[in-house]
## 1
Amino acid sequence: MKVKNLEHIDFSMLMDCFLKAFENYFVKMPTDHEYYKDRWRMANVRFDLSYGMFDGDKLVGFIINAIDERAENLIAFNTGTGVLPEYRGQRIVNSICQYAFPELQKNGITTCRLEVIKDNVRAIKAYNSIGFKITKSYKCFSGDIEFNDEASDFELKKVDEAYFDWSSLHQHIYSWDNHINTIKRGSYSYYAILVEGKLDSYFVMQPDNDYVAQLDVIDSTIHSWNRLFTAMKSILKTIKINNVDERLNQKIDFLKKVGLKNTVDQYEMELNL
């Protein structure tokens, strides 16, 4: 078997391996190929810096890397790792990493990053053995907004990405897929909640699936959170929010208060090259 980059792989071959590797996973994975093309484009996946293990011409394992600058560091974010069931137990991920890390270093990448579901104990142990360390804990939520403490002293305004000063909006708290560098490449809608003409809170959502990538208040007060969720409820009923940093206690408390359920917990892990 041999490790090679995925620059010239047929996309249907990659997806065939990907979906087989994620059968019976902790969460149900989408199967639409176009979904992954769009998601990986937004994440800035580089197939020339993504790698697979091949048994002859057959792809049997892979690491798909998105490459982008975050906090002045060039990061490789592992947006998908998998091995076909019949090839597990052969340290294939370890072998791919041993091949990939020097290649990533040569391309100026300083850090590798990934997310893993907390219940996936086997994967966490494997990543620990390679050298990854847990750096963040995330909580995912979904459900219907059930909110009674509604506010009326605000203006809800649909804006575009350029409306916001993103450097002041704490992008370091967001996961890779929810960071402005990623969402600005997608089809998102941006909303500002204004009080007396000043920004009080905001949220960013995908209108086709009610996924909320970012939401926050400028000043963390109960009144601001009430305005934010009142505004969101006027547009959305059912929402999904992934990867809320568990240190954001007030945000998490309000997500629960409005009726959302904690569905999955994840770790973010890093390795410095």
## 2
Amino acid sequence: MLKGFKDFLMRGNVIDLAVAVVMGTAFVAIVTAFTNGIVNPLLAIFGGNGDRSLGFRLVSDKPATYVEVGDIITACINFALIAAVLYFVLVMPYTHAKNRWGKVSEATKTELELLAEIRDLLERNGSSEPPASMRR
């Protein structure tokens, strides 16, 4: 029962999906800040008012055209912090555990490793030519 759970976790899909969901959520914060900080003030040129934090005003006599750079910077910092925490708390330990305890499957072998195996098999069979089925 625990072996099945371990295999499920080591499959990689669970961690990748969790990281993707959290990163997607953090990215939504950046997009929301961009919309609230830049797009909305650009649209507010045509009406509305209000003055906020770090930023600049596009039209001096219309407070609603205030571009909120502070919100965008905050969202970017939040995104970078979330990405760093996810990497150092989830991804790095998972990769270390997978390298230490995970099995290397045939599918993860590199082309060089596969070519070396083919070469070794041909040498063992006493032939330097590929089998007829592999010749063109």
